[in-house]
Amino acid sequence: MVNLYLSLIKFSHTVFALPFALIGFYLAYITYQPNDFFYKFFLVLLAMIFARSTAMAFNRYIDREIDAQNPRTKNREIPAGKISPEAAKRFITFNGMAFIVTTYFINEICFLLSPIALAVVLGYSYTKRFTWLCHYVLGLGLALAPVGAYLTISGKFDVITILMGCSVFLWVGGFDIIYALQDETFDKSNNLKSIPSKFGVKKSIIISRVSHFFSALFLSIALILMRNQFPEVGNLSIVGLIIFILLLIRQHWLVNEHNLANINQAFFESNGMASLLFGTLIIIDLFY
Do the beta carbons of residue 65 and residue 73 sit within 8 Å? Predict the structure, then answer.
């Protein structure tokens, strides 16, 4: 049963946003040197898990009828009958409430902003019904990770984590466009909005590439500011940035208008590795 729910929320995809959240958290730690590091670290992990579990399960619940009609998604847990809609609703309610309760124990600003954060990540599930910009709403949800994690210690916004959030916003939006190429025909026939269904494969790939170019630019600016502000950040951060950019390039080398067979490989392997390696190298630099 646990494996079913882990599959429902695609727990392995946590690797996309979590490293950026940890960077934001460690930057705040170095700046403010709180005494409750491990307590706050534990709460940040809980908040990330609860928020993402709520969002993914809600998306699967809202899309259950659409997923049942799509050959690619008809075997997902809810349309396949492995998890009932009622059980999914209970799971969503528990995780959503747990997220808000967790933010209460972090600090006041995180608690006050928690309903807004939930509104963003849950609202994404409806956007494909009325806007082809849905990919960037998903990006906005994940972009909250570094900004929110910084707030857990500082209680203030920070330009570096905001720039990182901008990078995540464009990075996620760009790779979600690539992922949505699989459903271009289905989306068109079911009046679902997406960049591929509106612009076609060739233009969608160009939009994704432009998004990833500016994602890399925002991340580079954030890293420059980070290196100026924190002497602890050394050459490993440069290596991390280069790896991140190379993996973005690899993603677009794997997928083009003449070859869509490698979408899943590009989606998970390239993006998961990019986030994980970049985050790991930055955190090592910050501490050692």
Answer: no
The answer to whether residues 13 and 269 touch, using CB atoms and an 8 Å cutoff, is no
Amino acid, res. 110: C
- Provide the domain count of the chain: 1
- For residue 268, what is the domain's CATH number? 1.10.357.140
Whether this prediction's pTM lies above 0.90 is answered by yes
Its domain, for residue 7, covers 2-287
Tell me how far apart the alpha carbons of residues 288 and 286 are, in angstroms, rounded to a whole number.
6
- pLDDT tens digits for range 86-135: 999 999 999 999 999 999 999 999 999 999 999 999 999 999 999 999 99
Amino acid identity at 233:
V
Nearest-10 Cα torsion for 135, 138, 245, 234: 160
Q: Alpha carbon of 267 to those of 91, 118, 140, 158, 179: distances in Å?
A: 27, 25, 18, 29, 6
Nearest Cα to Cα of residue 88 among 57, 121, 128, 45:
57
| Contact in structure between 232 and 27 (CB atoms under 8 Å) | no
- 125-176 tens-digit pLDDT: 999 999 999 999 999 999 999 999 999 999 899 999 999 999 999 999 999 9
